[in-house]
Design brief:
The complex is a heterodimer of chains A (148) and B (116).
Chain A (H helix, E strand, L loop, with lengths): L3 E7 L5 E7 L11 H30 L3 H10 L3 H28 L6 H34 L1
Antiparallel strand pairs in A: 1-2
Helix pairs in contact in A: 1-3, 3-4
Chain B lengths: L5 H29 L5 H7 L3 H29 L3 H26 L9
Helix pairs in contact in B: 1-3, 3-4
The chains are: A mainly alpha (148), B mainly alpha (116).
Chain lengths: 148, 116
């Protein structure tokens, strides 16, 4: 149960009114709109991708060192944890890419209204989830045919 | 240091680098899709092509600059202590510089000896 307190508001027509407002917010009771969820996921995926930079650089350099090194990476794909890492990285990349494209469209005043923003948010979330699930299927099943 | 135009500059660089990286990623994905049974020789050959090398180096600059703007924004939003923020920013800048020279070494094919 939230504690209540009187808060003074200044209205547009110059009146000063006191209203009763909850003081300590009950965080779980707050509903985050889809646009807020998509936005925070964009930020989170960006941070995850930042953490992956040295890993990707290492794998990139390793793959170009020699044919034996390249082959080692192909063998590493049989490892479950390596596959999980690859999946997390590309999931972050897919999501960040589509959320970023939505941002660029909004910079062009496309899908910038409240309704447009919500539609765009649901759209990129749906596209990303479908691609991420397909990626999981490909990594789990399809890659076996590529690696071996 | 003057930061009078820093916000607009960061805004523009974040988007320009994003557009470049989006095209690079799509091209790279298309390349991999066209080479389902990629071998070392084919993969190595790609990065001996002049435009692949230059394109990858530009990608590296875009990536690190884009990452810096994103990390700067995150730290500015969540790290309230100025001294801790400066410390974390310094660590990230140093890391990004390391990544830059490391990436340049890889693309320019200077043999690296991995010894731990």
């Amino acid at each position: 149960m939230a504690r209540l307190a009187s808060v003074i508001f200044f209205t547009n027509n110059g009146d000063i009114v006191a209203k009763t407002r909850p003081v300590n917010l009950n965080i779980p009771s707050l509903k985050f709109p889809i646009t807020a969820i998509v936005s925070i996921l964009h930020r989170l995926s960006g941070f995850v991708l930042f953490l992956f930079i040295p890993v990707v650089l290492w794998v990139f350099g390793y793959s170009l060192t020699s044919a034996a090194h390249f082959h080692n990476l192909a063998l590493a794909m049989s490892n479950v944890w390596f596959r999980l890492g690859v999946w997390i990285f590309f999931s972050g990349l897919i999501y960040h890419l589509f959320a970023g494209i939505r941002h660029l469209f909004m910079d062009l005043h496309w899908g910038e209204s409240l309704r447009g923003g919500r539609i765009g948010a649901w759209f990129i979330l749906a596209v990303s989830v479908v691609l991420i699930v397909l990626l999981a299927v490909y990594i789990l099943i399809g890659l076996d045919h590529v690696v071996y | 240091m003057s930061r009078s135009n820093a916000g607009l500059r960061d805004w523009a660089i974040q988007r320009l680098s994003a557009v470049y990286m989006a095209f690079y990623v799509v091209l790279m994905f298309a390349y991999l899709a066209c080479h389902p049974h990629l071998t070392y020789d084919v993969w190595k050959h790609l990065f001996t092509v002049f435009w692949a090398q230059i394109g990858t180096l530009i990608f590296l600059v875009c990536l690190l600059w884009h990452a810096w703007i994103g990390i700067w924004t995150i730290f500015t939003d969540y790290v309230k202590s100025p001294s801790l923020r400066l410390f974390l920013q310094s660590i990230v800048l140093l890391a990004l510089l390391v990544y830059f020279f490391w990436g340049v070494q890889i693309v320019w094919g200077i043999p690296l000896v991995w010894s731990f």
